[in-house]
Specification:
The chain is mostly beta strands and 189 residues long. Helix content is 10%, strand content 49%.
């Protein structure tokens, strides 16, 4: 956009005042012609005090967190060719939008506890916003620990370099720990 403006400043004004008026006029014009296209959203996810949960069959894992205060959720769908908990490992997967993806959702009320574990999601609550991670990576860290003749398998999920997209809006997240599930599998020895 090109803007042509003529500013009249009387010659009898002190130079300081002329400079001040010029700066004020420039700021006024800049404010008027600037715009916010709303394409990048800064979002502070509030899942720190929410436990990571999981469900799904071997090879088709769902990890999720539900914030019952703000009616929002963060979920990760992870389809793999190998079982996640068969041995200790640190594996990084790249989002592909089909087998591996994350979603951030806001609802109009609290989610039922089995929302992500149903084949057909319930009709309530209503989905208000949904952002899908179009790119990024997930690190899955599985550790084994033995206590009193019992083997505990713990899993930690870390999301990295995410770009959540909804139409023309984006939420960019550099790193987000979904958390740890201790004893995701327990085996008596």
């Amino acid at each position: 956009m090109f803007l042509c403006t003529l500013v009249f400043i009387p010659c009898t004004m002190p130079s300081f005042f002329k400079s001040f008026m010029s700066v004020c006029f420039f700021l006024l014009i800049a404010t008027i012609i600037s715009c916010d296209d709303g394409e990048i959203i800064v979002k502070d996810f509030d899942f720190d005090n929410v436990n990571l949960q999981t469900c799904g069959a071997e090879g088709n894992y769902v990890f999720y967190k539900n914030n019952t205060v703000n009616y929002e959720s963060l979920s990760l769908n992870l389809k793999t060719n190998t079982p996640l908990y068969s041995e200790p490992h640190l594996t990084e997967y790249t989002f592909n939008g089909v087998d591996i993806y994350a979603k951030y959702r806001r609802f109009d009320s609290n989610l039922p506890s089995n929302y992500y574990c149903n084949n057909i999601p319930p009709s309530t609550p209503q989905l208000m916003d949904e952002y899908t991670a179009s790119s990024g990576k997930v690190q899955v860290h599985v550790e084994f620990r033995e206590e009193e003749n019992t083997l505990y398998k713990d899993v930690h999920i870390l999301l990295k370099d995410l770009i959540f997209i909804k139409e023309n809006d984006q939420i960019i997240v550099e790193s987000l720990s979904m958390g740890t599930i201790e004893g995701v599998e327990v085996i008596e020895l």
